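User: Hand in any protein.

Assistant:
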Amino acid sequence: MPTAARLFAAICLAALGYLTSEVIKSVMPESTAFGIFSMVNAVIGFACGWVIVGSRAGRGISAAISNGITGTVALVLLGLGVQAINEMVRLAMRRRFDGPMEAFAAIFEIAIDFGAILFAPSVLVLLVIGAIVTGLVSEFAARNYR
C-alpha cells in the first residue's frame, strides 16, 4: 500500500544511492568507465527505501534511525551484488573464466574488491549521515502525512 513514508524513504535512499555513486566515482581512477552506475544504484535505493524503510516507519525516533541504517546496509549489499554480477558478466564475455563455477566464485571476489572502495572516509560519512536522514524523514512523513 503506497504511503507518504514509503515515498519519502524511497526518494531519500534513491538520492543517497545516486550521491554515493558520484562520490565513489571521484574516488576511483579517472579512466574507469562507469556507464549507468549511478542510475542503477539510485533504482536499488528507491526499491530498498520503499520496501525496507518505508514499510517500517512510524515506530519512533530510535526505530527510525535503525530503519534508515538497515535500508542503507541493504542498499550497499544489493548494490555490491548487482555491480559485481555486472562486472563478472563483462569479464565472462571476454572469456576470462575457465568455467561457470569460476565465474560464480569471481562474483564474491569482485564484490569484496568493490566493497573495499566503500571504506573511503567520504563514502562512509555520506552513508552514515544519509542513513540517519532517511530514517528521520520517513518517520516525519509517517507521523504527519496519513
In short: The CA atoms of residues 42 and 139 lie 21 Å apart. The chain is about 80% helix and 0% strand. Residues 4-144 form one domain. The chain has one domain: 4-144.
